[in-house]
Amino acid sequence: MLLVSVAFENPTQLSVRGKTDLFMDLFGNTLIRPFSSAYLNSKARVLTNIVTDPDYAERSAPIFDLEALKYKERDQLENVFRFWQNDQNHVFNIARYWDDRLRAQLGERYDHRDGAFDWDLQMRLRENGAKQICPQEYKHWRKTGVAFVFPEYEQTDPNKTFAVALVRNGNTFHHRGSVGDNTTGPYISFGQRCPEVRLMHSKHGVNDFRSTDITERNVHQIMYELEAREPYQFDPRDIHQFGAHQLDMGKALNAQDTRVEQPRAVQYEASPLLECTNLKLHFLSVEDVLHLQEGSRFRNHFDAVFVAYTYFSFVKDAFARTWKDEGCLLCLETRQMTTSSKEEIAAHTESIKTWAKRNSLQPVTNFAINKPHSTLRYKHQQSATGAVEECI
């Protein structure tokens, strides 16, 4: 909800450049700029009203459909948004949590972590195809959790959106700290390729543009087209170029005393999100997600399905009942763009192919081309007799 809100923020409040920087900050950095913290503080109040007041939600964010959420889940969301608001009792020392996870993960290798990071980058990520990631940005992210860095900004405040398992206890909150990926990085989502081939130029293994710069270019295009409703024309002035430069990133800071004052006062509540008449985001109850594959409520429902590689092991054959008869597109993520070994990637890819064959899926991905695929695409279609292929 937060990231979509950034993308559809009213242009009177945020420019395309402002949306781009804000999105990257909240999406990929454990520590964020003071302005991003102020936005999060303000937006948390708006999101609270959205989940608790249906009339307000219809006026300010009609793109969201929350009808399927139960009251208990709305209360839990309200607690999350309350924690995001700046208060001296809402402490989230993510820098310590990140370092604790790093120590537990590396063990004895922690004292030689630079070498471990370089191995993961050069022998795993780059070998697996993520060649746009530069050593300086990857190592900095592995050490601090701050992925996207620009010279004009300094990340100082904890990104509370990374907190998990929040439980309210009076005026304070209990949580399990921070969990999630800390080996691959957020560079894969937007920072590996773009239409301008020259931006991906590399000489002797040194990229002209970082994955951060490519991410900036692609996110900028998304924000522009959502606002202008016209194709984006690339302008080199829209992005940075620091691939060959060694930036002095300094020491990552963590604001122990949560910032209460806001660097910029913005009345987000008075500005509804941009209209989007052909799109609606439906948020499902946890129970709906658990029963999704039973096919009772969502039978013959989906035009397209995306399955992340971490969830593939939970997919059942009965899931096919939820796919539309007319032809559902299935996109199944592989482990290609991760720090997995080639053997692990190959085993996971083969399990996807076996599952697809068992469910009579037609491949859309051209497997004849000898190159790695980060996503395998299949098409589910009716049989010749017009009946849906039954999965056993």
UniProtKB/TrEMBL annotation:
PANTHER family: DYNEIN ASSEMBLY FACTOR 3, AXONEMAL, DYNEIN AXONEMAL ASSEMBLY FACTOR 3. It comes from the Eukaryota. Residues 64-364 form the Dynein assembly factor 3 C-terminal domain. This is Dynein assembly factor 3 C-terminal domain-containing protein. InterPro entries: DNAAF3 (IPR039304), DNAAF3_C (IPR028235). GO terms for biological process: axonemal dynein complex assembly; motile cilium assembly. It holds the Pfam family DUF4471.
